[in-house]
Write a structure and sequence with these properties.
By secondary structure, the chain is α+β, with helices and mostly antiparallel strands. The chain is 42% helix and 16% strand. The protein has 12 helices and 7 strands. The strands form 2 sheets. It has a 5-stranded mixed beta sheet, with helices on both faces. The protein has a two-stranded antiparallel sheet with strand order 1-4. Strand 2 (183-194) and strand 3 form a beta hairpin. It is extended.
Length: 303
């Protein structure tokens, strides 16, 4: 049912439109209908009655995809936490191969044989030689003669996270312990490759959780961070993948991860701003819902 305020607003709006039409008719003496000049202006009651008979339709809600800046893009990391459930066998994450969000060719690399790996590196060597030629270099000169092979081996090492199962990384380092206070490991060095430019970004990460009858070996927190950082990454996704991996491994009451990193794609190219630091965080469970727990974590990592 239309309210009195809406009826009055519609009536006033129609009155303004009719007055503007009357003013235009008085200015234009050659055109217009003279009869309209002599018609008395309707009163407010008639306007309210007409507006109640023909109420204006409500305007549709405005949809802003991608926060109003661009269309929504695909996501490679879940926007919400993965549903908690018991660990099945040696699976530390809900992934059939235990990889944790594998890419298109991750499974084939995980299961490849020695001849398959040699063929993969041979393709990379050929690609690097092409790149050297394209930038104006001679891949056959002494200094660059073995560079393609070195680059292929280095790239395979720097992306070895694609070959590591999270279940194997965590192994059996899950222990039953009646501890319900925060466990924090900070100042963990990480190095990864930006997936946009294939240049490094380096920094430190702090990982904390509040146990729920189970604790994780301290070194495993650093190994989880290392596994995901040895893939092509963006810092935002890396931060969240670490948090969800810990959450799925031991089902704690909460997980918090904060990462600070310097990106070479910002310091040595493009905007060229050395010293800039990017900070990302991911809070799950009680770290997200309880302000005091979150503040305690943020205070501890600043010491």
């Amino acid at each position: 049912m239309t309210s009195h305020v809406e009826l009055l607003s519609n009536g006033l709006r129609q009155l303004e439109l009719q007055q503007s039409e009357t003013n235009l008719g008085s200015i234009n003496h050659d055109g217009g209908d003279p009869q309209s000049k002599n018609d008395p202006a309707p009163d407010n009651e008639s306007l309210l009655a007409s507006s109640s008979a023909n109420p204006s339709p409500p305007s549709p809600p405005q949809v802003r995809e991608g926060y109003g800046f661009r269309r929504v893009s695909g996501t490679s990391t879940p926007l919400t936490t993965v549903p908690t459930r018991a660990i099945e066998g040696n699976r530390a994450l809900p992934d059939p191969n235990g990889l944790g969000w594998p890419a298109k060719s991750t499974v084939s690399r995980l299961n490849e044989t020695t001849p398959d790996r040699a063929a993969r590196e041979k393709m990379m060597v050929s690609a690097v030689r092409t790149i050297l030629e394209c930038i104006g270099e001679d891949p056959n000169r002494e200094g660059l003669l073995k560079t393609p092979e070195r680059f292929a081996q280095a790239m395979m090492w720097m992306t070895r996270g694609y070959e590591e199962r999270l279940a194997d990384v965590i192994n059996d380092a899950v222990f039953a312990e009646d501890h319900d206070e925060m466990v924090l490991v900070r100042e963990i060095d990480i190095s990864s490759l930006c997936e946009h430019h294939l240049v490094p970004f380096t920094g430190k990460v702090a990982i904390a959780y509040i146990p729920n009858q189970l604790v994780l070996g301290l070194s495993k927190l650093a190994r989880i961070a290392e596994t995901f950082s040895r893939r092509l990454q963006v810092q935002e996704r890396l931060t969240k993948q670490i948090a969800i991996a810990v959450q799925e491994a031991i089902k704690p009451r909460g997980v918090a991860v904060v990462m600070e990193a310097t990106h070479m794609c910002m310091t040595m190219r493009g905007v060229q701003k050395p010293g800039s630091i990017t900070v990302t965080s991911c809070m799950l469970g009680c770290f997200r819902t309880q302000q005091k727990t979150r503040e305690e974590f943020l205070t501890l990592i600043k010491r």
